[in-house]
Write a structure and sequence with these properties.
By secondary structure, the protein is mainly α. The chain has one domain. About 65% of the residues lie in helices and about 5% in strands. The radius of gyration is 24 Å and the shape is elongated.
Length: about 250
């Protein structure tokens, strides 16, 4: 029988004698690709954060030797820190999408259900844990939120340097140098982490990810714009599902 194998975003035709084995191999190949993408995404995130830490360290080390350029250097580093946090938030979103997709594919692989969008939607909903923004900010929920707090804290350092250089600062019930810094840093980190968690929470719905490459192959290509390869992929998937479940159209 002619079905296919997954390659990139398409299913390429190939001869298959065991549809169930092919189904498992197909899901396994996409599962491995999701794993690779998650590792690559996490590596890029770590590289961006490491770059900011290097710039921040250089700024602190040269701070005493920059009396005429302090405001400019501090403002530039603060903007770099904020940009790094935004980029890291994007990577946090993808880490969560990839990790949930991995659980989703594991659930689908453990069944013999037809490979339809509804099957993956149900598996996604069963894999995710509906939580509030406040729970997403709980450090006990995983290393991702801990890294978010740490990066938000580090991104506040140049902001605080700029504030002290201009005599700015939040009202604090404590005196000295370190306590006011810690108060301001904690408030700043909480504010950024809250915004990051609100952004990440938007992607807990399957509707926000079903058009990504991990699930797009399950969807019917548009009649007018669908390429021959897309139509072929859908035809292969339809034939496979007809074998797995004759009731699936």
């Amino acid at each position: 029988m002619l079905v296919g194998r997954y390659q990139g975003s398409l299913i390429q035709p190939m001869a298959v004698t065991d549809p169930l084995q092919f189904r498992d191999d197909l899901l396994a190949s996409i599962y491995e690709e999701i794993n690779e993408n998650m590792r690559a995404s996490d590596t890029k995130r770590d590289q961006v954060i490491a770059s900011y830490i290097v710039v921040l360290g250089a700024t602190i080390a040269a701070w005493k030797d920059l009396p005429q350029w302090r405001e400019l250097i501090a403002a530039t580093t603060a903007l770099f820190g904020l940009a790094t946090f935004v980029v890291a938030t994007q990577y946090r979103r993808w880490h969560w999408i990839y990790s949930t997709s991995i659980s989703t594919y594991q659930r689908v692989r453990s069944t013999k259900d037809a490979l339809t969008l509804a099957t993956f939607r149900n598996a996604w909903n069963a894999s995710r844990d509906p939580v509030s923004v406040w729970r997403l900010m709980d450090p006990r929920e995983g290393v991702e939120i801990v890294m978010t707090y740490l990066l938000a804290f580090l991104s506040f350092v140049p902001v605080y340097l700029l504030m002290t250089e201009n005599g700015w600062g939040l009202a604090s019930p404590v005196s000295g140098d370190l306590p006011p810094f810690l108060v301001d840093a904690v408030l700043y980190a909480l504010a950024l982490s809250y915004l990051s968690s609100r952004f990440a929470k938007r992607f807990r719905s399957f509707a926000t990810v079903e058009n990504s490459w991990m699930y797009r192959w399950l969807k019917e290509p548009p009649a007018a714009s669908g390429s021959g390869s897309q139509s072929s992929s859908k035809g292969i998937l339809r034939r496979l599902n007809a074998i797995l479940d004759p009731h699936v159209e």
